[in-house]
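User: New here, any thoughts?
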Amino acid sequence: MKRVVLALAIAASAAASIGFALIRSKDARHSSRNETTAGVPRFILWAWERPTNLRFIDPSRVGVAFLAKTIRIAADRVESKPRLQALDLPPNAKLIAVTRIETDRNAPPQLSNEQRDAVVAAIAQLSALPNVREIQIDFDATKSQRGFYRELIVQLRRRLPSDVRLSITALASWCMDDDWISDLPIDEAVPMLFRMAGDGRSIINRLNSGDDFNSPACRGSYGISTDESRPQLISARKLYVFSADVWTEDSVHKLLETNK
């Protein structure tokens, strides 16, 4: 079986541009941004930092949002760590490269322009990976970090090719009454409806009563987990799904069958 294998290339020097070796099929290519949007499947599996075999998925029905890089910002430093685990995929898999941004509470970041530029450069590199149709940022920015995050997104959008989409994960509160994201230059914000804290219960109750997100950016998809109950969902929207366990053919089949 032809397949695509994404694995870490242990870099001998810091000159490695992305940090991944990608063995790809001859069909791997970028499409236009409109085609990219139209071709995104309804089901997107989050593949986090563990060895993951997804070569059994049907790329016409299931896409993959894989953790490609983790960036840690502390004091005046920016530390970038590429994915360390193999990701086994079928040819023509539709991929979203996810960057997780974390900050150090013990050494609060300065959030300087230099740090912003370093983060933007590190994320922008991922658009060169074959079959990557979208860049997604996962950053639980605090209120004091929103200005930094906003400018980061603006600068990143300018750096990315026009045919590569840009999305973010969003705390559910950002999509409701604490909406500060509607005017960001992003294609989508994915409301995270699991591991919720604070006013999470009230948001779930509002969704169950037929309410919708206030932010238009949040009205195209949901982020859910296989190990938590979910609120009432609008069936036409995309589902980004996290699994606490390793994805298997059986667990993906169950997901598709229970969300027809």
